[in-house]
Amino acid sequence: MRVLAAMSGGVDSAVAAARAVDAGHDVVGVHLALSAKPGTLRTGSRGCCTIEDSHDARRAADILGIPFYVWDFAERFTEEVIETFVGEYAAGRTPNPCVTCNEKIKFEALLEKAIALGFDAVATGHYARLSVADGVPELRRAVDSDKDQSYVLASLTPEQLRHSMFPVGDTRKPDIRAEAERRGLAVARKPDSHDICFIPDGDTKKFLEKRLGHRPGDLVDAETGAVLGRHTGVHGFTIGQRKGLGIDRSVLDGKPRYVLALEPVSGTVKVGSADALTVREIRAHRPVWPAGPLDGPTECVVQVRAHGGLGEAVAEVDGDQVRIQLREPLTGVAPGQVAVLYRPDAAGDVVLGSAKIAATDG
């Protein structure tokens, strides 16, 4: 097969490309330039998609003996990922930009271009596995549960999965680094990237305030209706947040308060006790089903954020939505995030589908 290896400049994508070469595929490496000003992206141990990363990717491609190109996706990344991120926060939702990037950039824009150029598949360094059951692709958790990225890939369509390869998903991260050392890849000991690549200093609130300005409103106790303070914008908060609320301790009863709800139209941030955070039902929209929609109420395991937030549930398609009834309540479930449903068998690693969280009930 002709395989386009997406090379981020990290160790995972370099080994993924190497394994595609070993498998006998005709491999071409490509690095995605995602910023018109690469210097504004994170560097070093927290880097992703920087000039430094493009050089690391090129050196890896040279060692592997494969052609290498840099493709400029900066404009589309800005429109599809950054502007969506800002817009979601402005609307009182909590987005996951990695989900959006995978969906809109790496497995839509990149894959579309790859297929147009005659490639059969795109290979990436994501920690996930693919299998086929009755001719239908199955996205599965990685062997390394600590590095598993099936959650951020669960919005991919069956057609996108058919043209995807995840060569490192069957291996644990320490073994990937050891393999890179054996292959002479300089990125073998390169630290993993973290957080959001387009926020250089990691200060999401400051980044959003620069884009959205100040939109003052009240911090309101959800139980009593009392105004506990003021804030500069709902975009500075997420559901379940406890620290940095700016509430004067003199107006509290000694009990911590958590963000319960965000109302962007009125500018109100509702806060309350930890008990009020519990969620027993999730309603989600824009579902994606790798093997077709659920057939009636379906037992599953749901994951509501990239790290943690797992619970047993019963999910059912309700018109253009998915209704998810939790067996045990979860906390910190935020509209805008993705609910990923997994098959509840012994392994529990096959993705049944995913949908974006629209609302919750306690």
Helix content: 25-40%
CATH class of the largest domain: Alpha Beta
The termini sit apart by 50 Å
Rg (CA only):
22 Å
Shape: globular
The main sheet orders its strands as 12-15-14-13-16-17
CATH topology label of the largest domain: Rossmann fold
CATH H-level superfamily of the largest domain: HUPs
- Give the biggest sheet: 6 strands, antiparallel, barrel
Which CATH architecture of the largest domain would you pick?
3-Layer(aba) Sandwich
Question: Poorly predicted ranges (pLDDT <50, ≥5 residues)?
Answer: 40-47
Mean pLDDT level: 91
Describe the structure.
Helix 1 packs parallel to helix 2. It is built from 8 helices and 17 strands. The chain folds into 3 domains: 2-189, Rossmann fold, CATH 3.40.50.620; 214-274, SH3 type barrels, CATH 2.30.30; 278-361, Translation factors (Elongation Factor Tu (Ef-tu), domain 3, Beta Barrel), CATH 2.40.30.10. It is globular. It is 25% helix and 30% strand. With 362 residues, it is of the alpha/beta class.
Features:
single chain, 362 residues, alpha/beta, Rossmann fold, SH3 type barrels, Elongation Factor Tu (Ef-tu), domain 3, 3 domains, 6-stranded antiparallel barrel, 5-stranded parallel sheet, 8 helices, 17 strands, 25% helix, globular, tRNA processing, EC 2.8.1.13
Topology:
Elements: E1 2-6, H1 11-22, E2 26-33, H2 51-64, E3 68-72, H3 74-90, H4 97-116, E4 121-123, E5 128-133, E6 136-141, H5 150-153, H6 158-162, E7 164-165, H7 173-183, H8 204-212, E8 217-221, E9 227-231, E10 258-263, E11 268-272, E12 279-288, E13 298-303, E14 310-318, E15 321-330, E16 338-342, E17 351-361
Parallel strand pairs: 1-2, 1-4, 2-3, 4-7, 8-11
Antiparallel strand pairs: 5-6, 8-9, 10-11, 12-15, 12-17, 13-14, 13-16, 14-15, 16-17
